[in-house]
Amino acid sequence: MSDKQESLLKLAELFKILGDPTRLKIVELLLENEMCVNHIAETMGMGQSAISHQLRVLRQARLVTYRKDGKTAYYSLNDDHVECLVRMGMEHVAHQ
């Protein structure tokens, strides 16, 4: 497989991960500031275990990261590229 083909497969997987409305909403929340699982779950009206599962998927895709403060994990976007992807996508869908 060529490097270009491998890159396209990775990009398709990234878009698949971001194509889930729940994960996209979590990313949108994290655009504003870091949050713990409890706060994300409360804001979205979902259970903590469901949010934790989605955060695990986002972490594995290197879209979010976390820091520990005692027993609490605070999640944030992994880097500026994630913010750029989401903001450009939002601009694209708004521009019709």
From TrEMBL:
Pfam families: HTH_5
Gene3D superfamilies noted in UniProt: Winged helix-like DNA-binding domain superfamily/Winged helix DNA-binding domain (1.10.10.10)
Protein name per Swiss-Prot or TrEMBL: Transcriptional regulator
NCBIfam families linked: HTH_metalloreg (NF033788)
InterPro entries listed in its UniProt record: ArsR-like_HTH, HTH_ArsR_DNA-bd_dom, Metal_resp_trans_reg, WH-like_DNA-bd_sf, WH_DNA-bd_sf
Domain HTH arsR-type: 3-96
Keywords: DNA-binding, Transcription, Transcription regulation
Domain of life the protein comes from: Bacteria
Organism: Veillonella rogosae JCM 15642
